[in-house]
Amino acid sequence: xxxxxxxxxxxxxxVAPSLATHVCRELGRRIVSGVVREGDLIDxxxxxxxxxxxxxxxxxxxxxxxxxxxLLEVRRGSGTRVRRRASWSLxxxxxxxxxxxxxxxxxxxxxxxxxxxxxxxxxxxxxxxYGADDAHAEIMKAQExxxxxxxxxxxxxxxxxxxHRAVLRAANNEILLSMxxxxxxxxxxxxxxxxxxxxxxxxxxxxxxxxxxxxxxxDATLAESKMRALLTDTTVRLDEATGGxxxxxxxxxxxxxx
Length: 258
Fold this sequence. Notes:
Elements: H1 2-9, H2 19-33, H3 45-52, H4 56-68, E1 72-75, E2 79-82, H5 93-99, H6 106-130, H7 133-149, H8 153-170, H9 174-177, H10 180-194, H11 205-216, H12 220-241, H13 245-257
Antiparallel strand pairs: 1-2
Helix pairs in contact: 1-5, 1-10, 2-4, 2-5, 3-4, 5-10, 6-8, 6-10, 6-11, 6-12, 6-13, 7-8, 7-11, 8-10, 10-12, 11-12
């Protein structure tokens, strides 16, 4: 579900994905999830072609796509191997989406939340300062959807994601929009863990409402503060959902850096 929502949020619509794209995504999911591990050789073109029911040329195109995303490397005479994670293009939309199909990694969740804490409070302040009235209306529309229309977990996830997308877009910053994928991946990853029960959603609604209201009255300082409070609440609930693993990983990284 989350991966499909991610592509919807990114407006990845239009021409249907090609066969090569389908093969690329399936291989990419297996790599990101760890089914095929770093350093492993993947099957040759013949085997992959039979597995997916496609031609060798389709497999070659899929491999090229994954090479471009930093997940694979092709060496003449030794085959095609999965590159180490540090070489992956982690900001690539597909790579971010594929993480949503894999079991959550506490360290990666923590890193995504770190990026959210850097970006979103500032985005809320800029939305209050630079956002047009119709952009503010989109924020309120998403807020109302969360409060009045979302009855299932999936409906709430969509409304929550639309809220944060509306805030980012209201900031009126083209460069910031290039970071949308990071926000969506972080948001959808955390929601998978923190919003498994629709009744738990009500606790986060006041935080979102306070952000929206601050933006609409164009109080940038308050909007930034309220977004920080929202993300703090998210971090606490995420830590509870993972049994403290995200905080533990954060402390381990801090200790290692000293």
